[in-house]
């Protein structure tokens, strides 16, 4: 295993091992694979040929808890969802959720790489907020889109067309927040609608994106200025900022690289990944 800044190189003795590893990646994350074959040596008299097989695997850039922007055509295919969406989970498909309505949809591999969503804000930019008030609101009714009249193949349509929209469990709520760093400094309060209404109580610490500070309307064309001020992602694992960090009752196995050509420190990224595993039993079961 060789580690580089933009990826990893895996070398296998047997081709079957490499094929199984590529299939494992396909089951875990949407990816695009390009196969190549190179002749290394040949013995025409014995009719023996030695080939080197290479699989170039490009993984989806979107990760869990990222705030992404999809193009207008993809948003329409997802069931007329807004273009600014939150990544709920990533495995064989990318599951997206509209934080203002709770509607969820799935983006399959082919649809993802046809028009890859751009990552507007990533998990490293999450900011802690304190919940001051929670008021439940009624979820909007979702009408199913009309079926397509013509389709070349049902199987192809199931693979290409995303599923959606559906409404996730729980309920919507209008939440009054204050940025944790503003407590005791000013009286600024923010009100936003969130899909996490069933999980939040007054006094909870919650992580979210301050969309106002990111100024996405000026950096991303076509949003229309309807984006929320704050997008809440999940409750903080550590509710008391001054208290000890809770211990995890599980351990993440790792594979050490034989050669490292990347000098960057990935400690923060690892901690973010562990925090995401903490709230995702399905991901931990893999």
Quickly list its features.
33% strand, alpha+beta, 20% helix, 5-stranded antiparallel beta sheet, 6-stranded antiparallel beta sheet, 286 residues
Helix content bin:
10-25%
Within the largest sheet, what's the order of strands? 9-5-6-7-8-11
Q: C-alpha Rg, in Å? A: 23 Å
Shape: elongated
Main beta-sheet strand count, sense and barrel state? 6 strands, antiparallel
Write structural notes for this entry:
The chain is an alpha+beta fold. It is built from 8 helices and 16 strands. The strands form 4 sheets. It has a 6-stranded antiparallel sheet. Strand 1 and strand 2 (7-9) form a beta hairpin. The two termini are 21 Å apart. 21% of the residues are buried. The model is unreliable at 157-164 (pLDDT under 50).
Q: How does the SSE layout of this entry go?
A:
Layout: E1 2-4, E2 7-9, H1 15-28, E3 31-43, E4 48-59, E5 67-69, H2 72-77, E6 84-90, E7 94-97, E8 103-107, H3 109-114, E9 118-121, E10 127-137, H4 154-160, E11 166-167, E12 172-179, E13 190-194, E14 205-210, H5 211-214, H6 216-219, E15 230-235, E16 259-260, H7 267-278, H8 281-284
Parallel strand pairs: 1-16
Antiparallel strand pairs: 1-2, 3-4, 5-6, 5-9, 6-7, 7-8, 8-11, 10-12, 10-14, 12-13, 14-15
Brief overview, please?
By secondary structure, the chain is α+β, with helices and mostly antiparallel strands.
């Amino acid at each position: 295993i060789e580690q580089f800044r933009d990826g990893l190189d895996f070398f296998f003795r047997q081709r079957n091992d490499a094929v199984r590893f590529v299939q494992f990646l396909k089951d875990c994350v949407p990816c695009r694979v390009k196969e190549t074959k190179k002749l290394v040596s040949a013995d025409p008299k014995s009719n023996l040929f030695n080939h080197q097989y290479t699989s170039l695997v490009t993984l989806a850039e979107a990760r869990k808890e990222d705030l992404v922007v999809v193009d207008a055509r993809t948003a329409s295919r997802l069931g007329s969802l807004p273009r600014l969406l939150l990544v709920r989970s990533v495995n064989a498909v990318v599951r997206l959720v509209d934080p203002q309505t709770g509607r969820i949809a799935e983006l399959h591999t082919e649809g993802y790489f046809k028009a890859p969503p751009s990552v507007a804000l990533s998990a490293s930019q999450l900011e802690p907020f304190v919940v001051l008030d929670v008021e439940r609101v009624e979820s909007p009714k979702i009408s199913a889109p009309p079926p397509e009249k013509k389709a070349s193949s049902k199987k192809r349509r199931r693979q290409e067309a995303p599923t959606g929209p559906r409404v996730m469990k729980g309920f919507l709520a209008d939440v009054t927040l204050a940025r944790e760093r503003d407590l005791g400094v000013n009286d600024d309060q923010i009100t936003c609608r969130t899909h996490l209404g069933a999980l939040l109580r007054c006094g909870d610490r919650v992580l979210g994106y301050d969309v106002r500070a990111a100024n996405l309307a000026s950096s991303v064309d076509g949003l229309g200025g309807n984006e929320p001020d704050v997008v809440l992602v999940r409750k903080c694992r550590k509710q008391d900022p001054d208290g000890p960090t809770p211990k995890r009752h599980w351990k993440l196995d790792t594979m050490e690289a034989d050669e490292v050509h990347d000098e960057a420190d990935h400690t923060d990224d690892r901690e973010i990944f562990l925090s995401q595993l903490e709230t995702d039993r399905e991901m931990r079961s893999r």
